[in-house]
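Sample entry (238 residues):
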Amino acid sequence: MESRLLVFPESITEDQLLKEICQLNDDSSVHGILVQAPLPSHMDERKIFNHVSPDKDVDGFNATNLGLLCQEQKSAFISCTPAGIVELLKRTNVDTTGKHVVVLGRSLIVGKPVGLLLLQKGLPGNATVTYCHSRTPDLAKHTLQADILIAAIGKPHFVDKSMVKEGAIVIDVGINRIPDATRKSGTRLVGDVNFEEVSPLSSFITPVPGGVGPMTVAMLMRNTVKAFEKSIAMATDQ
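Predicted structure, serialized as tokens:
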């Protein structure tokens, strides 16, 4: 598998970026396109994502693929981090049927799609899903009911032991840098969950780094292979 990195200045206009995406859409040697977020503030992120061909949308952010996910269509490209979370649960032999999943976060990148995946009929799925966000009152009331707690809010060490019931499965999606004078870089990576506090309570917990991140990369590779196979099938049908 080969990759091509295209780096543009932050000052690039939206129209210029859309033109670059169109060229990649039309390039038969390119099977997958990933636009690295976050984008500069002068761009409409959803417009950019929706400009990527649905057949090359290996990040799963195009509205077509999100719609196919809602319809539980196997042809959909699933966002890589949500797909990685579900794969982690599957590989750990977690039966999600009837489980109460609480998702902290409602982004199109993680929160919404991971909830949709766990709501789907079949396994892993058949869960009861509650979404929580910055406007949710009495957050701990909800998180303490979670059999599976997924934290994706971008706040370092936000989830502590007072928010997690004993035996819960905790999936930490957060990637946050905090100051650390003991590190050469002056910072270290932590998640949205206070790992040291929550780990003794949980039955399973993902670390940061080294938990969800590698699975996200693996799912990107899987989506890229799927996009290649789809392009071959489309060429054969013509």
